[in-house]
Specification:
This protein is α/β, with parallel strands linked by helices. It contains four helices and eight strands, in the order βαβββαβαβββα. α1 packs antiparallel against α3.
Amino acid sequence: MPGLSLRISGQPDTTLASRIAPQLTALTSRVLEKRPELTVVTFQFVPHELWFIDSRSLVEHSKNAFRLEVTITDETNTKYQKACFQHDAFHLLSELIGNVHAHSNVHIVDCRASAYGYGGLTQEYRYQHA
């Protein structure tokens, strides 16, 4: 049950979001072995003038940027899988967004199964009652 939150520099772009969402979902399924029907992708767009790296806005850098946060249940993926996802997601988003600052990043958050879930049930509960 991964949750993907993607911040992208720039003005809201539903066309870009519609292109990214299925590709991130497919990548999450392929690399992290997560079920697509349980994968949530949300977007937030941040104006270039409000995104700072090294105290300079992206306007000054003349770059785009992104920050992808992926929440997964702890101990459901290996270090290798997470490293592969980091690499592949960075390159996928760099290609789709274009002209990205090197400090754009992917953050995988391992959440304890007892503190993470959906539909009012924790992942721990689902595991214990499977």
